[in-house]
Design brief:
Rossmann fold; 2 domains; five-stranded parallel sheet; elongated
Length: 432
């Protein structure tokens, strides 16, 4: 790649788990496309499998393998967002499509993408992904450093992620608000009103005077907790005249099943949105509610982006939640347990404080997207030493490239076929 015309159409691939029915992961490509399309850059998601989502407004993805092996033409790689910078597999992270191999997928989404960019001489930028844990082991650190040197622009979504990458004094690694905070610029409230009205009509309900959007993740709940949740929501509805709206933001993590189980146990009027017909419908449900309480980070992010007060439930250490809340100056919105969160919600309802100022993230996000744009539009071919550092370092770690996927040695074995491993987590400490 040599210098580029500033007006030449470009096609960039954004890596992430956009083949999973999970709200936030599906929004990242849409927001990237919204920000880059006016500058002649089209955005195509690259996911572990390329499986299609049922939401019609979700961008279709291609398998990351096709990008890494070169069969899918690309002018650049955009890494993230999402919590994808890790070197192995976390069982229970989400339910992927049939055939998905998340032992290899997560390294492929950042290490593999960086390798592909280096070999194909195209720019790579980081779209504020999260870094799950410190990168342990000298070899892995060396490879991560080489990947960082490959990137034209580096950003992560919280200070802890930057610390997990280690010291890179020669590179400027920006800490940027989660890009989903930019959803309101993509879908202004006025566009959401008809979608919201259609959802209520489909559910055969009138618009309540006070609507409480709630989200609970079945993977993080015991069955015994479902009855308690239902009872507490009934109590809140009776005491404060609110109507709970149970929103399933992640069918890929069984949020729809959880919402149905809670609704079955409720006796007070409520609205069950276990079958959202689009991403826009989910956004409308959150943006036009009066209060949000839940376990979804991006449910919270979307709500507060539209000025809706939000309460997050997260067991300690809840690092992902704390990092986001610290950036927007609202650490008080995180609660350890369901009773604490619902009591806080009740206090806010009693106080009548139902509207808050949306976080002031627009300036930081504008600067972020300007840097992403400059990476793809203005960067020339990277220096040979930087471009080849990652291909040279990679064999030292024991990471193998199989069919375009980066396979950690902890899940590779003789005659290994790419498949979902049984162990709880692939170790990040690569020692020989």
């Amino acid at each position: 790649m040599t210098g580029r015309r500033s007006d030449a159409p470009l096609r960039v691939h954004i890596t992430g788990v956009s083949d999973v029915h999970n709200f936030g992961d599906a929004l990242f490509p849409l927001i990237a496309a919204h920000r880059l399309a006016p500058h002649g850059i089209s955005v195509t998601p690259a996911s572990p499998t390329g499986a299609a989502l049922s939401w019609p407004d979700a961008l279709p993805s291609v398998p990351i393998e096709s990008v890494l092996l070169g069969s899918e033409p690309t002018d650049g790689l955009l890494i993230g967002g999402g919590h994808i910078v890790m070197c192995g597999f976390r069982d229970g992270l989400f339910e992927g499509p049939s055939g998905a191999d998340y032992a290899t997928a997560l390294p492929s989404l950042w290490l593999g993408a960086s390798l592909a960019a280096a070999l194909r001489k195209v720019p790579v930028a980081w779209n504020a992904p999260g870094v799950f844990s410190p990168l342990i082991g000298a070899d892995l650190k060396a490879v991560a450093n080489a990947a960082i040197r490959t990137a034209g622009y580096l950003s992560v979504r919280d200070a802890e992620s930057r610390a997990h990458l280690g010291d890179h004094h020669e590179r400027d690694i920006q800490v940027v608000p989660d890009t989903v905070f930019g959803v309101e610029a993509m879908w202004p409230r006025a566009q959401l009103e008809p979608v919201f009205r259609a959802m209520l009509q489909r559910k055969s309900v009138e618009r309540p005077s006070t609507l409480l959007a709630v989200h609970f993740r079945g993977m993080a709940l015991q069955q015994a907790a479902l009855a308690e949740i239902a009872a507490r929501l009934d109590d809140m509805a009776g005491a404060h005249g609110v109507v709970p709206l149970l929103v399933a933001v992640g069918p890929g993590v069984r949020d729809d099943e959880t919402a149905r189980e809670i609704a079955l146990r409720m006796t007070r009027p409520h609205i069950l949105l276990d079958d959202p017909r689009s991403l826009k419908e989910i956004v409308a449900a959150l943006a036009l509610s009066d209060l949000y309480v839940g376990q979804s980070l991006h449910g919270y992010v979307v709500a507060v982006a539209y000025g809706v007060p939000g309460i997050l439930i997260g067991k300690p250490p809840a690092r992902r939640f704390r990092g986001v809340l610290k950036q927007i100056g609202r650490p008080q919105d995180l609660f350890r347990t369901l009773p604490e969160a619902l009591e806080a919600a009740a206090c806010r309802l009693r106080a009548g404080a139902i509207q808050v100022a949306a976080p002031t993230t627009a300036g930081a996000l504008d600067r972020h997207w300007a840097s992403v744009l400059a990476t793809f539009r203005e960067s020339g071919e990277p220096a040979t030493s930087e471009r080849l550092a990652l291909p040279r370092r990679l064999p030292l770690t024991g990471l193998a490239a199989e069919r375009g996927a980066m396979v950690p040695p902890a899940v590779r074995r003789p005659g290994h076929r790419v498949r979902r491993p049984k162990q709880r987590r692939a170790r990040c400490d690569i020692r020989r």
